[in-house]
Amino acid sequence: MTARPHGERTSPGMRLDIVSIFPEYFAPLDVSLIGKARERGTLDVRIHQLRDWTHDVHKTVDDTPYGGGPGMVMKPEVWGEAIDAIIAEGPAVGGVGAPAATPRIIVPTPSGRPFTQEIAQELAAEPWLLFACGRYEGIDSRVMREYGARMRVDELSIGDYVLAGGEVAVLVMVEAIGRLLPGVLGNVHSAVDDSFAPGAMRNLLEGPVYTKPPVWRGHEVPEVLLSGHHGKIARWRRDEALRRTVANRPELAAAIDPETLDKHDRKLLDELAFRVGPEDMAN
Ligand code: JBE
């Protein structure tokens, strides 16, 4: 047993399979936090080329959509063979509890449920995830139906814009999940006060941040931050967080629980002419 720096815990470990026709997209997973976690064995990432499970000379993965319309749809047979083979490699090892016999399957698609910090946290607790990257108009829906009867399958979207395929969405999700794994993030406190982490600052965006020098190109750091007065600094940060949330994400600001607002918060929101809470309250 090698000595670990004080405070660092042994990690339970996670297996992550990614299936795509563009495995080169996942080169970034060799670097940074995720790369280090892989080197240490915290993360077992396996990238698979979907075309390895085709049988024809052209390695066909798509076909025209039933019912007509533009684009191509990914064929179910090749996906079925790929997922069956990957599951047969299992179960995921290195976990704390009983090894998982099947992965949780994630299919990135703009028509999925929104991928949020809450879902990232939920997925970070899983021993085994399998990401299925669709290209073209998506994967034949029967694939999700087939595996959905045997394991959890989630279609998730990272946002309301259309990407060329699920690859970049998977990179986004893997980074969001990966930094939550015990021992992956350098500083164990960094994940705690994220804008969307549960807790006191929930539903509030983070305000602006500053470092040295105190004056840069004539722009000064707000004086309160140099004051050393922790109470005033905390109050100022909360004001800035509220202002930014109202300006950039009014729907988040509207969802703030009024119970979590103090007198000062309410005064500030009043000055901003912003009303918190459900819009259709009987009045
Ligand atoms: O958000 N997504 O997961 C997507 C997947 C594929 C294409 N566009 C997306 N937005």
Question: What tags apply to this protein structure?
Answer:
single chain; 283 residues; five-stranded parallel β-sheet; two-stranded antiparallel sheet; 29% helix; elongated; disordered N terminus; binds 3-nitropyridin-2-amine
Structure description:
The chain is α/β, with parallel strands linked by helices. 29% of the residues lie in helices and 15% in strands. It has helices spanning 32-40, 76-89, 117-124, 142-148, 167-178, 230-248, 250-254, 263-271, and strands at residues 14-20, 43-49, 62-63, 73-74, 104-114, 128-132, 153-157, 215-216, 219-220. The model is unreliable at 1-11 (pLDDT under 50). Bound molecules: 3-nitropyridin-2-amine (JBE). 3-nitropyridin-2-amine (JBE) binds at residues 108-110, 157-159, 161-163, 165-166, 169.
Helix-strand blueprint:
Blueprint: E1 14-20, H1 32-40, E2 43-49, E3 62-63, E4 73-74, H2 76-89, E5 104-114, H3 117-124, E6 128-132, H4 142-148, E7 153-157, H5 167-178, E8 215-216, E9 219-220, H6 230-248, H7 250-254, H8 263-271
Parallel strand pairs: 1-2, 1-6, 5-6, 5-7
Antiparallel strand pairs: 3-4, 8-9
Helix pairs in contact: 3-5
Bound molecules: 3-nitropyridin-2-amine (JBE).
In short:
By secondary structure, the protein is of the alpha/beta class.
Low-confidence blocks of residues: 1-11
The largest sheet has its strands arranged as: 2-1-6-5-7
| Class per helix and strand makeup | alpha/beta
> Approximately what portion of the residues adopt beta-strand conformation?
15-25%
- Distinct small molecules bound, one entry per kind: 3-nitropyridin-2-amine
Helical content band: 25-40%
Alpha carbon gap, first and last residue: 66 Å
Q: Based on DSSP secondary structure assignment, what is the total number of beta strands?
A: 9
Q: Quick one: biggest sheet?
A: 5 strands, parallel
**Gyration radius over CA:** 23 Å
Number of helices: 8
Secondary-structure element sequence? EHEEEHEHEHEHEEHHH
The shape is elongated
- Give the mean pLDDT: 90
